Amino acid sequence: MIQTPYLLFLGDAPDGLAAKVAQGIRDWRPENCVGQYRMEGCNADLGLPEMDLVQAREAGAKTLVIGVANRGGVISQAWKKVLVTALEEGFDLASGLHNLLRDEPDLAAVAEATGRALHDVRVPEVDYPIANGEKRRGKRVLPVGTDCSVGKMYTGLALDQAMRKQGMKSTFRPTGQTGILITGDGVPLDAVVADFMAGAVEWLTPDNDPDHWDIIEGQGSLYHVSFSGVTLALIHGGQPDALILCHEPTRKHMRGLPGYGLPSLEALRDMALPLAQVANPDCQVVGVSINTQHMGAAEAEAYCAEVEGRLGLPTVDPFRHGAGRLAEALAAL
Amino acid sequence: MIQTPYLLFLGDAPDGLAAKVAQGIRDWRPENCVGQYRMEGCNADLGLPEMDLVQAREAGAKTLVIGVANRGGVISQAWKKVLVTALEEGFDLASGLHNLLRDEPDLAAVAEATGRALHDVRVPEVDYPIANGEKRRGKRVLPVGTDCSVGKMYTGLALDQAMRKQGMKSTFRPTGQTGILITGDGVPLDAVVADFMAGAVEWLTPDNDPDHWDIIEGQGSLYHVSFSGVTLALIHGGQPDALILCHEPTRKHMRGLPGYGLPSLEALRDMALPLAQVANPDCQVVGVSINTQHMGAAEAEAYCAEVEGRLGLPTVDPFRHGAGRLAEALAAL
Question: pTM for the whole thing?
């Protein structure tokens, strides 16, 4: 569990895209962000108050979160100076980078000496159990995609927002590093050992109030041969009551797999639902989320309307339309 | 890769069942076994020549394989004496036990000093790649089960034997610790990190002769919510040309999951085949393997005949009938 609120470290991000992790935290959990820390040459700007470490401490920040993708896979010496000082000033550090904070001897030494925590959110820190398949109280919804990276996390976060707005009880349950940094907690599922994947998802989504919804962050796709096992562990460990189908209509082939075409939404529905019903016989497909970022407004509207007619399910782009109709579909279950 | 041939260590096995790993090696790779080593109180007997360490070395044994399940999860002091002496006599050690050889300081120290290898086959020793889904040359068959522990490994090993007998080219590809000890090589799939499961299976079953068959050891079941993700990684990483359905008809519920009934063979077929065709559109279900160990001979015959009529597929218990008909079905593909 990462201590909030955060000071968001943007480093020397060459552009806004390089700081997309920080942008995600800023967009979805603004209450977790007291300010931003930018170094010379930083071209990203989240519109948060600019703070140095002392100011951020005074404003209550507990963790410095590396919200920027680094270049070349190394933590630069320029960053190091800030990170070491942050530890000395009493901040924990959190990072989703491939190169781990804990593997940097200077950071590890200062963290040890100051008693501060280094959170590498790509690395599981819990001994997860083997899944027992027992029915849990409360409700769960899982977005499943025709492919990887079609907007499952965005759909889940937008749904969480819409459900709260409608007065529903919901918790977003991250299963990847960006989601974990956004909420401060979760399971880095792709780094969990095979036998414990489904158990980790059960652990993440425990018994809850009967009217509470866990929104489980999806991963991979049943149709993506590199990562489909992770997806099925989410379906069986999460025992969802509801699935939301996610799709990006302009994708020419499966991400990273040039020889593999995308399945239709119908094929995804017919594959995912029987698998989900193994763990939860009452599971239903309740809606469709379309990522229309590569379409014009009119084209996007027409596409969603066409899918809605074809599948008979509420179909939205949560970015363009909000996720209110998906939340209503869950409320109606 | 574990050096063969082996001396099989039966320790103080209280009965034959406790030595079932050794029995598996003896049954399926007798050419890998020069003899057995039994301690006082051992009630297991594989019918192999009794040897001490010196005799076994002279007979050419390279590795002492712990073929017995230990009690209480610890490597006893009585065993230790033999294991340390074996390292000093020039043997490598191999084990599938939960408590690792490498975690025993005395064994680790002697192995280091003598330059011998400690093979803990539950632990992956390769950095597996992420699966790329590319079509590989050669053919692959995968047994898939209605449940865990219904005889998938046995089916694969019997099929390997039958295929060789029929002059076909085949290799059994282990994905669990017993299989790895039997052949000396493989992937401990349940211990692989989620993102690399399918890649590990691709690594295990590389390009081969067009008429060569890899027989991939199955794990878990698409219907077993604790381990289904591992099963799907096998299906997608293995890109099998053929599936064999495996079933144990007397099972009352899924293994370890009292609330879960077993699926029908038809349901398994209809779930597994479309998933397999994502990775290999030409995949077919070619046969059924029934584990009839809890049935009388007449009942077993009748059951297999009934399934064969119902599914229209060659149906055998490889233990009672051999796997010849399954091999023929593969040859006919």
Answer: 0.96
